[in-house]
Amino acid sequence: xxxxxxGSSTDFTRPCGAALLSTFSLIIACIxxxxxxxxxxxxxxxxxxxxxxNAIYPMSTMPGWLQGVSYxxxxxxxxxxxxxxxxxxGESGFGLAVDFSVLVLTLAVLVMxxxxxxxxxAT
Length: 123
Prior knowledge:
Oligomer: single chain
Number of helices: 5
Largest sheet: none
Strand content: under 5%
Structural class: mainly alpha
């Protein structure tokens, strides 16, 4: 039966990607401090992350400068891992080990940054 391989690493990739974007949003909210600014900046950053990732079109068709941006874009690794795990003949462009490593290491760094910034905001 073809289809998503649920119960495998997709159960890790989805929450890790969601936690990464949530933590990134928390850091932005700590910096801008008002809801209106956060919503405006958050929308712009979300649009830029989405269009500069491999979610819409493959990285091989991007111009060179955009490929460089896409390699730095965390959403590219999330999409790459999910595409490899959820599609019947999906394959990872970076490799699943690279996808997971980048997501976990970046999440750990962002959680530490957000954990240090949030208590300062509350006081």
